[in-house]
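Page 42, continued from yesterday. The earlier attempt failed because a stray header line got pasted into the input along with the sequence. Redoing it now with the clean sequence only.
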Amino acid sequence: MPTVHPSAVLSGDCDLADSVEIGPGCVLAGPVRLAEGVRLLANVHLRGPVTIGPRTILYPFACLGFEPQDYKFKPGAPTAGVVVGADCLIREHATVHAASNETAPTTIGDRVFMMVASHVGHDARVGNGVVMVNYAGVSGHADIADNATLSGHVGIHQFVRVGRLAFISGGVAVSKDVPPFCMAPERNRIGGLNLVGMRRAGIPRHEITEVRRAFRDVFRAPVPHDEALDILRERATSSPAVAELADFVAGTKRGICPGMGRPPRLLTTWLQMKRRGVTLPDFDEDE
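This time it went through. Structure tokens are written below.
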């Protein structure tokens, strides 16, 4: 039988596996499905439909399944809810919002680590092995692929895709897609490859070499989209990792974050104004 603290409140259809532990102050409003070994430590709030996979642990004040932050969504409207995989750690004050549709839930994969106050918005998909450091936020409809790392205070724009094994540095916001294996050290910029992550993932050395060559020729300096895709597809025949890059680039809708070889947008704007003869204010370090 599941262990349920007397102060916990369960309502609606709650399906609890025998080894589930529900701590003090938890509130579950069904339909809620908790698999074997799930632990709600204390003051966890679940609003169904929510399904949580085996051995996942939720820490105090984690809130899953509440209505999406979407003006189009009418309070009380039907939703596909939230599905969380196995062996996840969801820390204090983390939030995962319900889907804004009735067919495809907001999805968290297996072995996901959501640290304090991290957030996953409605209709988003977070793959397996993803790490979200404190206050990282994934907006609605975004797609985070397996083993990506979102450092503290990272912001992911709606509908953005982050590729497998990508790494986004702390405080960085992205509104364009971040390709697999790439590191984003600045806003909407990729500056290198997550070589440590690739090695730890067991990617062979020759594959890493091919990805480095592709990054140098396609992402570091400005290359038109069609030309970049042709280069990647040509090399994809001998490298599965480069094929993954090619598929990712081919599927982009928001565009790919440029590399450091392209001038920042503000600098480009400044240069264009200078060419047009616009008088710009002098920079005064004392101001």
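Notes: The domain at 3-141 is CATH 2.160.10.10 (UDP N-Acetylglucosamine Acyltransferase; domain 1).
Reminder to self: strip header lines before submitting.
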